[in-house]
Specification:
Elements: E1 4-9, H1 13-29, E2 32-39, H2 44-52, H3 59-81, E3 85-91, H4 95-105, E4 110-114, H5 121-126, H6 129-136, E5 141-144
Helix pairs in contact: 1-3, 4-6
Length: about 140
């Protein structure tokens, strides 16, 4: 049925719950996991501030370190369950675009992701990342709540 499952994470408890569900599903199907984290790019002013002052620990380096830690956590969960897992990250202002793009580039046939909280007025007007993925993706999406 499904052989390669993308599990996007932002490090939240809800995302870790979705990762558990995805790993459990992958284990039962003999599938593998691709863990994915989207990093927000730094605003130009802050970026140039880092460049001008030659910051040793720039925003981008801290963000990548944080992403690698979050991905390592999911990889450890998958390894414990006996599921093959690798991961990656990308910088993008639109996480839903990065998630759908990663799923296509990695040839994933399912996305397992979380939805934070209940629908509120701002989510109905602006939309959540999960809603945006659902709206523009032709790959099945399992939403964990």
């Amino acid at each position: 049925m499904f052989s390669h499952i993308l599990v996007p994470t932002d490090g939240s408890d809800q995302a870790l719950h979705a990762a558990e569900v995805g790993i459990e599903l992958a284990h039962s199907l003999g599938a593998r996991i691709y863990a994915f984290h989207v990093l927000a790019p730094l605003a130009a002013v802050a970026y140039f501030s880092d460049v001008i002052r030659h910051a040793e620990d720039s925003h981008a380096e801290r963000a990548v370190t944080r992403a690698q830690q979050r991905l390592a956590e999911i990889e450890a969960m998958a390894n414990k369950a006996g599921v093959a897992c690798h991961g990656g990250y990308a910088f993008d202002k639109r996480p839903y675009v990065a998630i759908v793009g990663a799923a296509k580039m990695q040839h994933c046939d399912l996305i397992v992701m979380s939805m934070h909280g209940y629908a509120t007025l701002d989510r109905m007007l602006l939309g959540s990342e999960t809603n945006r993925v659902l709206g523009c993706c032709d790959i099945p999406v399992l939403v964990c709540h």
